[in-house]
Write a structure and sequence with these properties.
- The protein is an alpha/beta fold.
- The chain has two domains: 402 residues, 3-Layer(aba) Sandwich (Rossmann fold); 121 residues, 2-Layer Sandwich (GMP Synthetase, Chain A, domain 3), CATH 3.30.300.
- The strands form nine sheets. The protein has a seven-stranded mixed sheet with strand order 5-4-17-16-18-19-20, sandwiched between helices. It has a five-stranded parallel sheet with strand order 7-6-8-11-12, with helices on both faces. Strands 21-22-24-25 form a four-stranded antiparallel sheet.
- Helix 13 crosses helix 15.
- The longest helix is centred in the first third of the chain and has 17 residues.
- The radius of gyration is 24 Å and the shape is globular.
- The termini are far apart.
Length: 630
Amino acid sequence: MNVIRTFEDYQEQYKKSIEHPENFWSEVAGNFYWRKKWDKVLEWDFHKPEVKWFQGAKLNITENCLDRHLTKHANQTAIIWEPNNPDDDAKHITYQQLFEEVCKTANMLKANGVKKGDRVCIYLPMIPELAYAVLACARIGAVHSVVFAGFSAKSVADRVQDAGCNIVITSDGAHRGEKTINLKGIIDQAMESCPGVSCVIVKEYLKSGVPMKTGRDVYWHDEIQKVNADCPAEEMDAEDMLFILYTSGSTGKPKGMVHTCGGYMVYTNYTFKTAFQYHEGHVYWCTADIGWITGHSYILYGPLSAGATTVMFEGIPSWPDWGRFWQAIERHKVNIFYTAPTAIRSLQQAPLSFVEKYDLSSLKVLGSVGEPINEEAWNWYDKNIGKGKCPIIDTWWQTETGGFMITPIANVTKLKPAHATLPLPGVQPAVMNESGLEIEGNNIEGRLTIKFPWPSMARTIYGDHQRFKETYFSSFPGKYFTGDGCKRDNDGYYRITGRVDDIIIVSGHNLGTAEIESAIDEHANVIETAVVGFPHDIKGQGIYAFVICYEKPTEEEKLRVEIKDTVSKIIGPIAKPDKIQFVSGLPKTRSGKIMRRILRKVAEGDTGNLGDTTTLLDPAVVDEIKAGAL
């Protein structure tokens, strides 16, 4: 039922999902354990906006991720934990062990005052306890708010205050390659402005001897010894909050996206199994951090609800050397590998010998997530990692969407480099022009919207429904506006051209920054590029490119001419950059997102107020870029 194995299956299922969406999703939802079935599949109004899926249904997502697998798969590995240091042993956690650890962690939270509906901030490294804590919250009906363990104290405090968290889970520290990070110190600083937090649970991981505040701080190992593994799952309504996850907003104030229990469970499971063509026994590895939506949906909830074996990776791709990913693939015989274009481009610049020394023959499917993948990186990934035999699943989706929206289906969809290809069943995209009219047909370009709800979409911004409406539903009333531009080619394939606020209008032509960046990246000496617009007297906007090279150019002007020629050949003379600045790095958040706001200010010559740069991966890069501005 609803299984897709051929392109004809896809076409049939897609047609069914558009013509009879309630029937389609009702069938998909029939594959789960519900305490009580729904009274109504869907109720929605995008003008309010309000969406409810599986109304009246009762469930607990952890019963679908854990309990239901125990009869047949109790001894199957649920999570392979791959530590930071490859010399340390990996940990194989079975479904039975995971179930017991989650129940104990849930009882520990209850013993420390956590109740259904409470918000719990989780600030942990990529260690098994992070998975236990997330699922334990879901088990008892508490709302988890995972904050990536790389954010500053101010960022943590902002999120704790906004969500009204009364408990924080952290560790004494984290490994990141050769470095260690004092997480407890960051939490202590954050807590100075969070009087509402009554308890901080500390996992002793590095055993670094951190100060503990009497009456507030307790050690995980002490508390876990006081409880047992008997914790019945709390009954939840399908529309109850499951988690809040913060994403950066254009105003600078983070937005707490709210995801709910029923629809999110159904959609993440369906998209995981469908896009990757997951089969029982496959070992699956998503390299993301659980602090991001990719980790929520496609390390934990999607794979575990499917009874899969999912790899959780503590390390970084470059330490102890650039072979780290490939070594882990060989070690665990990984079948499905899902990573970000930023990582692929970094790995591309390392000698191929780091790839060639490892056996990657177990790989069946590759995936890409986080940003549009440029053709050069796609081709390198295909040739050197997939050996030309593994489909690349270039997934387009967002924190707000909860799961994949437009993506190829492995071994089903005919691939096209740098194209997200076609919408999954249940996803109804519409391409709009600036006047708010839908552009029909193929070979078009415009703004990407979605005109019908899907089960895993965010329901609101926590505590600010008006902002939710203004951000996502006011540009094109009655439709969800993704904020992205796209092209739909003659095959009906979608290519994401970048954020619409990253669209540069040159002499009346809309140019997507992602497209220009992809063209510049085709030059043999270019690793990565970020492009922004700047005011231009004649053209309205000019194109400013920040370019990282493999080898520092000795003749900068000669390389600039070559890059312009490359862009001219790939896109056309209209897209040639007006200014090209060679840099050693780009201002990125810890999740790899380029902070274009900073680059725009530099391009505009406004370097006096670049805002807060403390959350960047490497704040020093900003000073170098400012100093070299053209």
